[in-house]
Structure formats: structure tokens, C-alpha cells
Amino acid sequence: MTLTIGYPAWIGVLTRRSSTMSHPGNAPATTGGNGLAVGSLVLGIVGVVFAFLFVWIGLIAGIIGLVLGFVARRRGVGSRGMVLAGIVLSIIAIVLSIIFIIIALAVVVPAMSN
Q1: For 4, left (φ over 0), alpha (ψ -120 to 50), or beta?
Q2: What residue spans of the chain are helical by DSSP H?
Q3: pTM greater than 0.85 (yes/no)
Q4: 22 φψ region: left (φ > 0), alpha (ψ -120 to 50), beta (else)
Q5: For the chain, give me the number of helices (H) and strands (E)?
Q6: Looking at residue 91, what is its pLDDT?
Q7: Which of 30, 80, 89, 105 is deepest in the core (most CB within 10 A)?
Q8: Helix, strand or coil for residue 78?
């Protein structure tokens, strides 16, 4: 830290840059992120909720969440528990959606033929 004579010492503290801060013009530092794991978890939760309400949305969210979970697991991003929870919830969403589709078809098809 270089100070010019005549400036108070606290100015140097305010203008000093940390080694972890990016300098102007540089690309922002990336930490790798866990967006895939979070996406898998969120879509798994959405899939389970929508499996009861709108079956097709639950099925699609579950499939996308499952794919994101496997990609996150293969890349090793995010916490292992979050990735596993996303995969498990996505599988539950897919199974519930398929069960409700089968139940709906079993009820609707006989009702339509009468």
C-alpha cells in the first residue's frame, strides 16, 4: 500500500483492493455454482405439488428435474444431499403423475362409453 504524503492514513484503507476482488474490466469471478442442483430440487417439489393438481405439468417438471439432477450429479456441482433430494422428489413426481393419469383414464374412459 503506497500513501502519498499529505493524505490521511484511512484513505489508503478505503482505496486498497483485496486480492479476491475483481479488478475493473475483468470477468466476474465464478464459484461453480449449484444451479443444477437447486433447479432439480425446485422442479422436484413443483412436480410433486402439481402431480396432485395438474398431472401433465407435474410429469413434465418431474422429468426435467430428474434430468437436471443426473447432470448435477455427474458434474459434481452442488451439495450431494440437494442433488439426491431433487432426484428423489422428481422420481416421486413422475410416479404420482403416472398413477393419476392411469386413474383418470380408468374413470374417464368408462364414463365416456356410457
Answers
A1: beta
A2: 9-15, 35-53, 55-75, 80-113
A3: no
A4: beta
A5: 4, 0
A6: 96
A7: 89
A8: coil
